[in-house]
Amino acid sequence: MQFRVVKLMLGLFIVLSGHASANYAEVKLTHITPEKSDAQWLRTKQFTPKYPMELAIKGIAGCGVFKVIVDENGHTDNVELISSVPKRVIYKPARKVIKQWQWKNVSSQPNAIEEKLIRLDFCMGGATQAEAKAKCEEQAKLAC
């Protein structure tokens, strides 16, 4: 069975050959520490991260908690996996997404290194984008 993947707005619309079914995907980013309101560095573009294509093609959903180090120049210096479900499967695709982020200092403090703990939920399922988003909100409440 072949898959054809088409990117559609914030989600992915996956059409299985010969079937008229849709499966939307959603990504949820949660700032664990520091909370978003207390962070020195925030991403320059505050958009929903893209669902990694390699996970979508395989139909993999899950979550990961990452320690991210932002250096004094606003670059992602290091990404470390703290925990994930499924184990280690989402690390490489998620790391690739996180490493591309650019950061800006949104505080009144001089530039400094900041350690962040973030959670990324990669959710799949639902016949509409709204259903996928609701499913992701529920998944984000579960342990990762």
Cα(first) to Cα(last) distance is 31 Å
For this structure, the CATH topology is: TolA/TonB C-terminal domain
Please write the CATH class name.
Answer: Alpha Beta
Count of structural domains: 1
**What is the succession of H and E elements?**
EEEEHEEHEEH
The helix-and-strand class reads alpha+beta
CATH superfamily: TonB
Computed over alpha carbons, the radius of gyration is 16 Å
Largest sheet: 4 strands, antiparallel
Number of helices: 3
- The level of helicity is 10-25%
- Which runs of at least 5 residues are low in confidence (pLDDT < 50)? 1-20
Q: Order of strands across the biggest sheet?
A: 3-8-5-6
- Estimate what percentage of residues fall within beta strands: 35-45%
CATH architecture: 2-Layer Sandwich
The outline comes out as elongated
According to DSSP, the number of beta strands is 8
Mean pLDDT: 84
Key terms:
single chain, 144 residues, alpha+beta, TolA/TonB C-terminal domain, four-stranded antiparallel sheet, two-stranded antiparallel sheet, 3 helices, 8 strands, 18% helix, 40% strand, elongated, TonB_C, TonB C-terminal domain-containing protein
